[in-house]
Amino acid sequence: MQVINLGDNNSVFNQFIAEIRDVNVQNDPLRFRKNIERIGEIFAYEISKKLTYQSKEVTTPLGKVDINLPESFPILATILRAGLPLHQGLLNYFDRSGNAFISAYRKYVDTKEFVIEFEYLASPSLEDKVVILSDPMLATGSSLEVSYHALHRKGRPKHVHLLAIIASQEGVDYVREKLPSDHCTLWVGGIDPELDEKKYIVPGLGDAGDLAYGNKMDE
Prior knowledge:
Blueprint: E1 2-5, H1 13-21, H2 29-48, E2 53-60, E3 63-70, E4 75-80, H3 84-93, E5 99-108, E6 114-122, E7 130-134, E8 137-138, H4 142-151, E9 159-164, E10 166-168, H5 169-178, E11 184-188, E12 191-192, E13 194-195, E14 201-202, H6 208-213
Parallel strand pairs: 1-11, 4-5, 4-7, 7-9, 8-10, 9-11, 10-12
Antiparallel strand pairs: 2-3, 5-6, 13-14
Helix pairs in contact: 1-2, 2-3
């Protein structure tokens, strides 16, 4: 599986990554969500380069011009709730895309161990479609694996772009092992070296859902 790390290149993208990680900036939920949305837009632009294009004649007030345009737009799938600002950034650019929403979350067995609970999927047909499956954080990789297989209830996609802003090395290795390499691409904004005892990414940025939408009541 190809892994593309946009954080490896110097660009304004790194400014947005720095701000969502920075504890001095994180206390502004509006800015946190907006930066996640901006990051989604940059990912959308980069992924758009991998789509299939065809020439189309466009009429202007003064004549005609041929422009290469996408043959179709990808289906945008995200994991609730943390994925919503990232999803919006992707949708800002892929504004004609269909959308899929997945409810998958950690359910802790004790203070350290958890299982991934899958509850809900709303999606159009994914048969032979390009899909972008996004989640801000790729920690263990379990949520992404569960969500990937859940999407196949709606058809077999032609290609799946997996997207995470911050990933752990363990999560990257897990996804590469568990998911097929022939029709998946993993996009990340940064890869961190480790997970803590509760399987949060270190240094990471904390809980993206809480930072975007406020603390939730633990189960």
